[in-house]
Amino acid sequence: MQHRIIVLGAGYAGTSAAGRLAKRLHPEDVAITLVNAEPDFVERVRNHQLAAGQVLKHRPFAAMFAGSGVELKLAKVTAVDADAKTVTVIGADGVEELQYDTLVYALGSGWNDQGVPGVAEHAYELASRPGALKLRDCLARTDAGGTVTVVGGGLTGIEAATELAEARPDLGVVLIARGGLGDWVSTKAQAHLRKVFGKLGITVHEHTDVAEVRADAIATADGREIPATVTVWTAGFVVHPIAAATTMETRPDGRIVVDRDMASVSHPDVFAVGDSGYAIGDAGKPLRMSCATGTPMAWQAADSIAARLTGTKAGRTSLKYSGQCISLGRKNGLVQWVTPDDRTKNSSLRGPLAARMKDFVCGFAAWSVAHPTFGMPVRRHRVAVSPEPRTVRLGSNA
């Protein structure tokens, strides 16, 4: 009887895990099902480019996984029962209940309105492809002289503001940041950000809290009103709520607590990767939600599952950081070098070379999804054992 592996979510982490498992395990011994609501891979880190009107490469899963043994099921996940080992989905065939022996949970995250009034009604998001396409269509209808106001001074907000300002110089672009502009990067990197924002004509409101989003303006906590023909909300992400509704041990933010193998500390037959998992990195600190984190987590989970099923020892994927790549339009960029535990170093790469590096990193991330064992020997091992779940102390993250 085949060991049933179900992978939920086909972002960077879920797709990488499914592909790596298919190249690690013999197809006669395992049935790998990848569940996703959309038929194509979405380069989430390029959604700001999509919103700005650029055409991105089409990456259908049917072509990516052709001949791999991975079965793609187009459906939306509605529930997980980690005790009964079932997943409820709804798709073209209606509501179905899928049974698994091993589950890879990679449902990721979406935009977070932070409970601010008016966000859901009046703002656009970039956390999903549909959101980016809606924003693109809205901008296409926006006449010259209008104002695009981006709320959120993190990586997504900075990339969105600069991309839109470069693509639509006929529009005014405003960035609202709760802190200072790029206040987590080095001094020279901050100066570079300000220089680029100045050249692009982007107005920045720093140390500003948003109290309400209106149809044509942003109301701030200190009583000001900032014009906004179009509002783009990038102020944080929130994980998919399904895990928190299960009996699995989760963090207050809904992420599944996992060990070094990426297995749930309460349900060892569930592996959580990407934004869905709460893992401790090699430097002893929690990993942040990012593509840079999700893919290595997926590699580790796949190798851990394969080792458990084949009775071998799993290797250790490196779980540490080296830098943050930020695009500032198509012609400029910033690479901020960081320590393994994600603390800012004094050194950075700035300008066109940094832009090319960022583009390469994004391209390689998408390419590696379809080539999950790049640089490693491909061996489809036979399942040698009937794995028994390990006994793990609840609350442990060792």
From TrEMBL:
<protein>
    <submittedName>
        <fullName>FAD-dependent oxidoreductase</fullName>
    </submittedName>
</protein>
<keyword id="KW-0560">Oxidoreductase</keyword>
<dbReference type="InterPro" id="IPR036188">
    <property type="entry name" value="FAD/NAD-bd_sf"/>
</dbReference>
<dbReference type="InterPro" id="IPR051169">
    <property type="entry name" value="NADH-Q_oxidoreductase"/>
</dbReference>
<keyword id="KW-0274">FAD</keyword>
<feature type="domain" description="FAD/NAD(P)-binding">
    <location>
        <begin position="4"/>
        <end position="302"/>
    </location>
</feature>
<comment type="similarity">
    <text>Belongs to the NADH dehydrogenase family.</text>
</comment>
<keyword id="KW-0285">Flavoprotein</keyword>
<dbReference type="Pfam" id="PF07992">
    <property type="entry name" value="Pyr_redox_2"/>
</dbReference>
<dbReference type="InterPro" id="IPR023753">
    <property type="entry name" value="FAD/NAD-binding_dom"/>
</dbReference>
